[in-house]
């Protein structure tokens, strides 16, 4: 499977899309480069929520490996997202090109770092890593597969997935989220929210016994995307998603003009809720316009 990312991750193909090597190579040759920002944390969250799901071709009994290829420093918290994957037993290899931050690569990658972190000066040099990466990946899969497998819940649905996300008490700066927990309470919830037109994703981690959250310090008059992800010891449930817009800031109302003189006027208005200051602008009306 392969996803590209900038400020909005995009799945190019799922694990189940192609079944032969030639098909994959042809898909790579046809790939269109996606320029833009470097939101690595959002990309890792996308991979977890979208690409490592049974409906995307991920087999619950199979080992999971993610290869991160980046040429820059992340503009969001890549470490937090990477830790979530690693806590679920997902192996991460980090490959940096050109301006990648090596310290960040080492934070994101799984141990041992001498096998999972690579850095090259330019894209053509990636070819020098292929044979070594192949050996490392195959060896890691065999090692992990030979360990005693933990019991992995095979039932997704009401057993593992929350339902009925409700967004209420929406203001210009806040909103309240509630949801119905799954039959089996998760270890924790990851709540991710960000403006739909682009912005740095923010994340709140809650104990699995909690099923509500108040979001503060939001931007007014903005559409937000919200995801509630249940996290278990050995598996992640499906994300529960919602979208809503914060209210615009309250305007002042009922502007009134009084006490006119040859060089002054008095203005009065009904206050705007929450306003701490007002900016008053005035200019002479053009000739012929209404006073």
Automatic annotation (TrEMBL):
SMART domains: FN3 (SM00060), VWA (SM00327). InterPro entries: ECM_Assembly_Org, FN3_dom, FN3_sf, Ig-like_fold, VWF_A, vWFA_dom_sf. CDD domains: FN3. Residues 1-133 form the VWFA domain. It comes from the Eukaryota. The keyword Secreted applies. It is found in: Secreted, Extracellular space, Extracellular matrix. Residues 161-250, 251-291 form the Fibronectin type-III domain. Keywords: Extracellular matrix, Secreted. Its main location: secreted. This is COKA1 protein. It holds the Pfam family fn3.
